[in-house]
């Protein structure tokens, strides 16, 4: 087994800030091991899996020393920003969970959630999008669904859920979902729709920031070149 990496080393390998790395861990997208003293350590193989799920091409071999940092995939900072935005929505609706699928290469991929345990977030990240998410994207209308029948977010889910497509500047961005143990009222479904507009703005703004950071990094790399 290769040497496990510290928080600073893992941040450098993935091209993330320490805050974003820890937020990804809190969102259940990345798992850290703990030393007897309580310090985080990251398995290079786990970092590779995370980078691949986020759409980034890892630039190191398992067990090898960290490679120079790469520009992060936009899904990485989006996961932290989206989870922070989902928290007040879930709490306001007294929902069990709220989550976000974003389009990557034309396919919706699980990006972030609030109220979803780490093991389930990892499962959703690896699985195809569930039927309610695909339906919401296809119809461009809110899709009410039975979580138990859809086995989403997981087979033991109960109550009622709603999935709403996110759009910005005429294009689809992804799907926002909320799952509650009780039936959702019509005004609550409209709240989810309206909140989806806010999330769409956040996603679009975050992607612009990521693109700007990439360009700045490219300029910095040119100035460092011999």
TrEMBL record:
<dbReference type="InterPro" id="IPR041657">
    <property type="entry name" value="HTH_17"/>
</dbReference>
<dbReference type="InterPro" id="IPR009061">
    <property type="entry name" value="DNA-bd_dom_put_sf"/>
</dbReference>
<protein>
    <recommendedName>
        <fullName>HTH merR-type domain-containing protein</fullName>
    </recommendedName>
</protein>
<dbReference type="Pfam" id="PF01590">
    <property type="entry name" value="GAF"/>
</dbReference>
<dbReference type="Pfam" id="PF12728">
    <property type="entry name" value="HTH_17"/>
</dbReference>
<dbReference type="InterPro" id="IPR029016">
    <property type="entry name" value="GAF-like_dom_sf"/>
</dbReference>
<dbReference type="InterPro" id="IPR003018">
    <property type="entry name" value="GAF"/>
</dbReference>
<dbReference type="InterPro" id="IPR000551">
    <property type="entry name" value="MerR-type_HTH_dom"/>
</dbReference>
<dbReference type="InterPro" id="IPR010093">
    <property type="entry name" value="SinI_DNA-bd"/>
</dbReference>
<feature type="domain" description="HTH merR-type">
    <location>
        <begin position="4"/>
        <end position="49"/>
    </location>
</feature>
């Amino acid at each position: 087994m290769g040497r496990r990496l510290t928080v600073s080393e893992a941040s450098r390998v993935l091209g993330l800030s320490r805050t974003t790395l820890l937020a990804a861990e809190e969102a259940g997208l990345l798992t850290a091991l703990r030393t007897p003293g309580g310090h985080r350590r990251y398995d290079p193989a786990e970092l590779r899996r995370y980078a691949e799920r986020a759409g980034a091409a890892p630039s190191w071999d398992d067990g090898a020393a960290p490679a120079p940092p790469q520009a992060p995939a936009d899904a990485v900072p989006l996961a932290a920003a989206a989870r922070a935005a989902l928290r007040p929505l879930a709490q306001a609706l007294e929902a069990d969970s709220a989550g976000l699928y974003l389009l990557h290469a034309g396919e919706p991929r699980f990006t972030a959630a609030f109220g979803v345990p780490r093991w389930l977030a990892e499962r959703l990240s690896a699985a195809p999008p569930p039927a309610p998410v695909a339906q919401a994207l296809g119809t461009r209308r809110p899709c009410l669904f039975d979580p138990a029948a859809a086995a989403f977010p997981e087979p033991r889910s109960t109550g009622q859920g709603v999935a709403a497509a996110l759009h910005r500047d005429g294009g689809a961005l992804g799907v926002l979902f909320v799952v509650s143990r009780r039936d959702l009222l019509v005004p609550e479904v409209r709240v989810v729709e309206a909140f989806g507009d806010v999330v769409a703005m956040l996603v679009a703004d975050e992607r612009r920031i990521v693109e700007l950071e990439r360009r700045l990094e490219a300029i910095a790399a040119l100035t460092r070149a011999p």
